[in-house]
Amino acid sequence: MQEKLNIAVFVDYDNIEIGVKSTLRREFDVALALDALKERGDIVAKFAYANWSRQESATRQMAENAIQMVQRVPSPRGDKNGADINLALDSLEMAFTHDHVNAFAIVSGDSDFIPLVNKLREYGKTVYVVGGKAFTSTILQQNCHEFISYESLLDDGRRSAPRRPSEERVQQQPQTAAGPQERPDRGPRVRSAPLDLMQAMPLVERALQVLERRAVQPQLGLLKSTMLQLDSAFSERAYGCGSFSEFVERLKKADFINVSGTGGRYVIERKAAPAMEAPKPEEAIPLLRDVLEMHRLELEDGALADELLEWMKTENPEFDHTKYGFQQFAEFLNFAQDKTVARVEPDEERGLVVFLGAEFYPPAPPQSSEEPVMSEYDEKQPIVPGQPSIFEPTPPPAPEPKPAKRPRTPRKRAADSGTTTRTTRKRTTTTRKKTPPNS
Length: 439
Known about the structure:
Blueprint: E1 6-12, H1 13-24, H2 30-38, E2 42-50, H3 56-64, E3 68-71, H4 82-97, E4 103-107, H5 114-122, E5 126-131, H6 138-143, E6 146-149, H7 150-155, H8 165-171, H9 201-213, H10 220-230, H11 244-253, E7 257-260, E8 267-270, H12 285-294, E9 303-304, H13 305-315, H14 329-338, E10 342-347, E11 351-356, E12 420-423, E13 428-431
Parallel strand pairs: 1-2, 1-4, 2-3, 4-5, 5-6
Antiparallel strand pairs: 7-8, 9-11, 10-11, 12-13
Helix pairs in contact: 9-10, 12-13
């Protein structure tokens, strides 16, 4: 039997709140994330980290869902990653001291939690990540056991759930002369276009091949768990299906797979002929790179994501991000950010602001302290007076050579050993040897 999962939930509220606001124009609803996690196991602990003095509007929904709020008071010099450090320490402490907790859910899109996810998996814990596909690092999506996208929760049937009493009171308030004051999370939202089923076939075929090599009969539950092992970001809701069985039925109708069996005991087999491959996400990066280079000056101060999408369609009229496996253009920008092609900053008022990525600002080459090695051809050429060179194409004539100096006359010694003769140009001096006095 499958092991029962006891899940501890850790919410990085500042990160998830600004990500949902900037990409989806809605308020973050923690109840949606908790409902999705309850389908996977029992939630035994819930913690949320933020400076709650600035998030008074969110404290009510945290209290309604029995979430323990951990207060973060920033220091005078600021502690941008203070909540991240607290969350990581508390989750690791729970992993060491609470043996019955065998699963962890991190509600955030921050790539700083990648080491935490790897460490929890190292200790045999199941790790879920809840975040938006448009602002959660793709590296974080691929390294957890299952990534639950917040967009799929909004497109799910949970939106038709009954409102809480506090929400009913908001709806019953009278409208002012300026019109109804719609909150961002109550406004109409356009559903993301579902992806083509053909884009899921490479993952489906790979999972079926894995099960064939294991000599295991591919059934529904086993097929989905294998697909999640290969790609933790897979979700059948991205293809417009409410359940995995519906996803398999649609693949069967499209004649992509063979399905046999009844009563929920389906056996899936892959077709002999391979399906037509869809464009890969990496193939859209060169198109974006060219547009960023053309509008380099406009992007120095940042440009909105919608404005960049217009530039993409102007330069490439047939461009469609859904063909490359992205439901939203913001998801494509998030993918490009991990490829260092673009840099995306969420803004609560303007939305997503795009800048040039690190690829357009390569680091300067390091200065070498060693002297360059000169070859025999790099040797400095001598300069000959009167001879043309690259510095003086028309040099002045060489100066006339000076006359040779007269050789100096050597000293002469007298024949007598008692006298020494010194000869100079002007005069000759004879020095006599002193005779000692007679005794």
